[in-house]
Amino acid sequence: MSILLELREKLNLTQEELADKANISVRTIQRIEAGTKPKGFTLEALSNALGVSKNVLLEDKDWASKVKLVDLATHTSEKSLSRLRLYITY
User: Fold this and answer.
1) Which residues are within 8 A (CB) of 67 and not within 5 positions of it... i.e. 6 or more apart?
2) Is the pTM of this model over 0.70?
3) Are 37 and 67 spatial neighbours (Cβ–Cβ below 8 Å)?
4) Neighbours of 79 (CB within 10 A)
5) Fewer Cβ within 10 Å of end Cβ, the chain: N or C?
6) How many Cβ atoms are within 10 Å of 74's Cβ, its own excluded?
7) Which residues of 16-53 are buried (b: 16+ CB within 10 A; e: fewer)?
8) For residue range 53-72, what is the model confidence (pLDDT) as tens digits?
9) Can you give the pLDDT at residue 47?
């Protein structure tokens, strides 16, 4: 079970309610709950809607294995990327 599904159910939210709250599509919620890695904007929107940090959502083992730091820091220097590695914990 994905961490998103667990959190959504604990908050008694339907996929539609969470989609409205996060201002994303229901299909996006369905894809993420099925194991698709969320993009940065979607991850931010979901963390805000659920009231949890992005790191909590990244604790999902399926997502964590797919997250690439390069996706999160496309045009950063190696020094900035090092700081980002310290910030994101798996």
Assistant:
1) 37, 58, 88, 90
2) no
3) yes
4) 8
5) N
6) 8
7) eebbeebebeeebbeebbeeebbeeebbebbbebbeee
8) 888 887 766 555 554 443 44
9) 92
3-state SS, one letter per residue, for the chain: CCHHHHHHHHCCCCHHHHHHHHCCCHHHHHHHHCCCCCCHHHHHHHHHHHCCCHHHHHCCHHHHHHCCHHHHCCCCCHHHHHHHHHHCCC
Which two tokens mark 1?
């079970």
10-58 pLDDT tens trace: 889 999 999 999 999 999 999 999 988 888 899 999 999 998 888 888 7
